[in-house]
Please model this.
Amino acid sequence: MYYIVMGIVFFVLLLGLYWLTGRIFTLFVVIQIGKWKVRAIRILLSILLCIICLLWDAGGLVAVHLIVLYALMDLIAIVIRRVCKKKNSKIYLILKKSYHLCMLPILVTGLLLAYGSYNINQIQRTEYKVTSGKLKNDYKIIFISDTHYGTVQKPDIIKEKIREIKKLEPDLMILGGDIVEEGTTKEEMREVFRLFSGIKPRYGIYYIYGNHDRKMYAPHPSYTDKELENSLKENGITALKDDCISLGTDLLIAGREDISRGRESRADTEKILKGNLENRYVILADHQPVQIEENVRQGVDLQLSGHTHAGQFFPIGYMNTLFGTYNYGMFEIEESQAIVSSGMGGWGFPFRTQGICEYVEICLFRE
Model:
């Protein structure tokens, strides 16, 4: 599966780079693109650039931005040519010269990625306040997802935030999946759970699996599922995989298996809760923000999810929202809530051009 996906990525990127080289050749080289020699040069150049992009992740991101921005500039140019009646006007000539200089997409790409490189290292605390008549006590909950530890986010920044979280003295902490991933080494996996265990919330730390934690996309995993489970146990972290646990006199915490394993591989919410609601306030952690309305019907008061990264790259977050995904923030569903975190890190690339990196503090208040 891994090699099939990489093959598709290589082919799509190759097509995009072939088009981009042709686009640049027409602007900078006085030649006929239709000639077979020029096509051969473009093919060889595209293959070389594609290999560089696959070996250097940032190079791939630059290429994708350039392809999209050059295509967008061409579309805008077509519209301007059709709409503009005065082809000798000063504005039209400036736009025409800018188009032929071909520098705008390069400038925009540079600015976007410079901002993205800075933004991904700024982890913020996002606070939500929720009240409920089911609660007999007040609780401070820390929810963390998508650290992807040891990859694109600097470990020192995460360590600093863990020290910050410890000072908040939370009652409960929930790790919402993708804390580790395919690029995380065994030593880094053990380190991050040891670091989180040092926070020592009053009611403990609970963990659900994401789609990356168990390295399902890695051809050669650096640790096994059993080693991951053992590390959780050694650090006093309770994994909730289609299971629930009662805390105090008024809380029920449930965790679901990630949907990436298939719907048939995870239990229904009704079965997980096992009829143990007893007027308790029910918090359900599910890595991906799915089946929220169904969970509310089954008695869930608050669903905590991550996975989306709030898009991570502009404009993916807006596209997620457009297609009906719970992309980021707190949502009201009937008398319940769902919180979707953008995560503490990023995936794949050390850039974030949309959204923020965060950990979430949820203050539950009794009415």
Remarks:
- The chain has a mean pLDDT of 89.
- The chain is about 45% helix and 20% strand.
- The first strand starts at residue 123 and ends at 132.
